[in-house]
Amino acid sequence: MRILSLALLLLAFAACGSDASPPTCTGTSCACEAGTACDIDGSSCAGNSCTLSCTDDNTCSGTCGNSCSIDCSGGSTCTMTLGASGSVSCSEGATCDIRCNGSCSLSCSPDSTCRLACGDGELRPVESGGSCPG
Question: pTM surpassing 0.90?
């Protein structure tokens, strides 16, 4: 019984490890509530094609599938992995660290900070935009 109690206690502490919650999704369109941290893993966007809005001082993370489209703006920070044919728009003072598994593109406004990695490559700074080949 003591071992079971200890295991449940450790499980409870592990569940408290992340402050991020899934975004609110309607079908394949997802959005993070203003000022919150969103992890798309565990949402309908995880590993799938979807649109994700991180537009109001959000911290967004996770992995989406092929043809995923992300709007990261309004001072948000996006650390995302995209599948083939994905796209990210980083604007309005956002910070974007984007990893592409396949072809994808990243557009970056002058007031934002962007880095892009293709596959297992190193994140590299991007000025106005960049892309990864398929």
Answer: no
